[in-house]
Amino acid sequence: MAEAIQDVSDQTVTLVYIDQGYTGAHPAAAAREHGIELEVVKLPEAKRGFVLLPRRWVVERSFGWAARFRRLARDYERLPETLAGLHFLAFACLMLTHLNDAMNIVQNML
Hints:
The protein is mainly alpha-helical.
């Protein structure tokens, strides 16, 4: 998997946050071969009730944003490339909205 990540990203990935299920010598060695450092996201020692894991919120927030697009709510696409393109389009729309908000703030400051 580390090799596939580096192939897709043109060798730009250097740090990967992983779940506790990927701890151990084998995943670390496989990642190190491809120049990737693994950082395990762990639960706090005294867990009681719901505890938000560090860095996990980034992924959960992104899933929440994607869920607002009705076309992505169900997987009706025949080709995986179509679904990937729809995700790209959804996040492009989201980023354009955030860019527009940022531009309005900058214009109001001037």
